[in-house]
Design a protein that fits this description.
Homodimer. Interacts with IFIH1 (via the CARD domains), the interaction is inhibited by viral infection. Pfam families: Dak1, Dak2. The protein is α/β, with parallel strands linked by helices. It has two domains: about 300 residues, Rossmann fold, CATH 3.40.50.10440; about 200 residues, Serine Threonine Protein Phosphatase 5, Tetratricopeptide repeat. It is built from 17 helices and twelve strands. The strands form two sheets. A six-stranded mixed β-sheet has the order 1-2-4-3-5-6, sandwiched between helices. The chain has a six-stranded mixed β-sheet with strand order 9-8-7-12-10-11. The radius of gyration is 34 Å and the shape is elongated. The relative contact order is 0.07.
Length: about 575
């Protein structure tokens, strides 16, 4: 039986409704019933009250649509089960006693819902209430619908919205019934799923193979009309829209080029929001290519089937009046808050910002000559390419095994950059330029860390190239890496080698030292520090998530840094 995060299986419908009401100050429970009402019932005096409902398991339907401008109340059954006649009748009486000028029941086309809401309607009429019922059947799945007719699915939410806006504007019961009946006829919905769903405490309703998807299934896990191999999102959407609009399908929706629709892209409960966005884009693109105007698009979870990994598409043909009713304000928490306007894949992009002019410091030709810079950089590149496999091997224990690839990418990028132009000889410009190359080409967090180091180091070297300036540059680079990377020496990262080398470079600040001897000492310190990471616990970086963070081999980042410093010295 699939895992569920419930408190008790028997109380899950009650607990879900209680949780919703607890978090929404605009809602109230009706004592003794699983009925949710607006907390400002007095506001419906003299207006039409709207009631809906059905089984639980379709959240946020239906209680998420209770609010000013949408439903007055809803009646919830157990999971996937119709609510009782007694609860529906209690809800009708509550709004009638609040002074409603007529009551409309909006019911999804399922036998149980029709029977229970219908029985309650008959009893309420016998008590003198003015009650009407609209049954919504928007499912486009079946080419030849049986006697039961088309199922009521996600399109019902649009009917809640249209009826709610009309009632809020003071329309009469007859007018609301007439307008929503017309709207409901010009509407269709079709579902597609990659998985079944399971009622808490039960096994899944059906099985789908790893490579299968099912078209046209209902919101209770009932079987659909067709099983097929999993398709890419764009093809799946095309298949859905073709089925929905196919004239040989008795429950199809006729779409002609130039018509306007409201599109609902509904998560059936278990699809990731990433996939939903892809499906939504594909649906807009597919409709636009048929010459259909998407006056509004709603994307989200509107009427679900527990954790089913699927999506449904609803299309409602609209005119200006209907669009106005869809746009009207509501306080219902599950209605999306989006700007009013059409959906299109042809939105103009914001132009890319222009880059500010680069300040090229025309520093006098201090620092090593260009040829010397090229020689040093070439040594660094060939060193990194030589140790590529070793670094990948060291990285496999803790990371994703790509440290060598990342450094090799950096080496190739530096080589190409040197081929395209002679590197600047001035230290500050050289390090700045290298930072740009690595940020663009290296990738991984190492690329950003090296970029941070070089950018900060370059700032220290502006207009200077004396020995102490290099010690300052090393410290500045390390400080920037620590500030944004969050690691410290001893965390088993590239910083261990860098900090050891920096410590040795502090000797450059003493007058009369031999810079080459200091550099040699710095390289030795870096190599020893890299080797010492073999015995450290990882405190930062990806390796820190590995349970036994003692990895019994040196950190690849620290090894790479030591190798680069060694190549510079050679």
């Amino acid at each position: 039986v699939p895992k569920k995060l419930v408190t008790t299986v028997s109380g899950c419908a009650d607990d879900a409704v209680a949780g919703l009401v607890a978090c929404n100050p605009g809602l109230r429970l009706l004592q003794g019933h699983r009925v949710v009402l607006r907390d400002d019932l007095s506001a419906i005096r003299g207006r039409v009250a709207l009631l809906s409902g059905g089984g639980s398991g379709h959240e946020p339907a239906h209680a998420g649509y209770v609010g000013k401008g949408m439903l007055t109340g809803v009646v919830a059954g157990a999971v996937f089960a119709s609510p009782s006649v007694g609860s529906v009748l209690a809800a009708i009486r509550a709004v009638a006693q609040a002074g409603a000028a007529g009551i409309l029941l909006i019911v999804k086309n399922y036998t149980g819902d029709r029977l229970n809401f219908g029985m309650a309607l008959e009893r309420a009429r016998a008590e003198g209430a003015d009650v009407r019922m609209v049954v919504v059947g928007d499912d486009c799945a079946f080419a030849t619908p049986g006697k039961a007719g088309r199922r009521g699915i996600c399109g019902t939410v649009l009917i809640h919205k249209v009826a709610g806006a009309l009632a809020e504007a003071g329309a009469s019961l007859d007018e609301i019934v007439e307008k929503v009946t017309v709207a409901a006829k010009a509407m269709g919905t079709l579902g597609l799923s990659l998985s079944p769903c399971s009622i808490p405490g039960s096994k899944p309703s059906f099985q789908l193979a790893e490579d299968e998807m099912e078209l046209g299934l209902g919101i209770h896990g009932e079987a659909g009309v067709r099983r097929m191999k999993v398709l890419p999102a764009d093809k799946a959407v095309e298949t859905m829209l073709e089925h929905m609009t196919d004239p040989s399908n008795a429950s199809h929706l006729s779409l002609t080029p130039g018509c306007s629709v409201v599109l609902v892209v509904n998560n059936l409960g278990g699809l990731s929001c990433l996939e939903l966005g892809i499906v939504a884009g594909a649906a807009v693109h597919c409709l636009e290519s048929r010459g259909i105007r998407i006056a509004r698009a709603l994307v989200g979870s509107f009427m679900t089937a527990l954790e089913m990994a699927g999506v449904s598409l609803t299309l409602m043909l609209v005119d200006e009046e209907l669009v106005g009713l869809i746009d009207a304000k509501t306080t219902a928490m599950a209605w999306p808050n989006i700007p009013a306007g059409p959906a299109t894949t042809r939105r103009e992009e914001v132009p890319a910002p222009t880059e500010g002019p680069r300040k090229l410091q025309d520093e006098p030709g201090t620092g090593p000559g260009t040829a010397r810079v090229e020689r040093v950089l070439e040594r660094v590149c060939s060193t990194l390419l030589d140790i590529q496999d070793k670094l990948n091997e060291l990285d496999r224990g803790a990371g994703d095994g790509d440290c060598g690839h990342t450094h090799a990418r950096a080496a190739q990028a530096i080589r190409e950059w040197m081929r395209s132009r002679p590197p600047p000889a001035a230290p500050a410009q050289l390090l700045s330029a290298l930072a740009d190359v690595l940020l663009e080409q290296m990738g991984g967090s190492s690329g950003v860390l090296y970029g941070l180091f070089l950018t900060a180091a370059a700032r220290s070297l502006r207009g200077r190239s004396d020995s102490p300036a290099w010690a300052d540059a090393m410290d500045a680079g390390i400080e920037a890496m620590q500030r944004y990377g969050g690691a410290a020496p001893g965390d088993r990262t590239m910083l261990d080698s860098l900090c050891a080398a920096a410590q040795a470079l502090h000797a450059l600040r003493s007058p009369g030292v031999d810079p080459l001897q200091v550099l040699a000492a710095a390289v030795q310190s870096a190599e020893a520090a890299a080797e010492a990471t073999r015995h450290m616990e990882a405190g930062a970086g990806r390796a820190s998530y590995i349970r036994s963070s003692r990895l019994e081999q040196p950190d690849p980042g620290a090894v790479a840094v030591a190798a680069v410093l060694g190549a510079v010295l050679e």
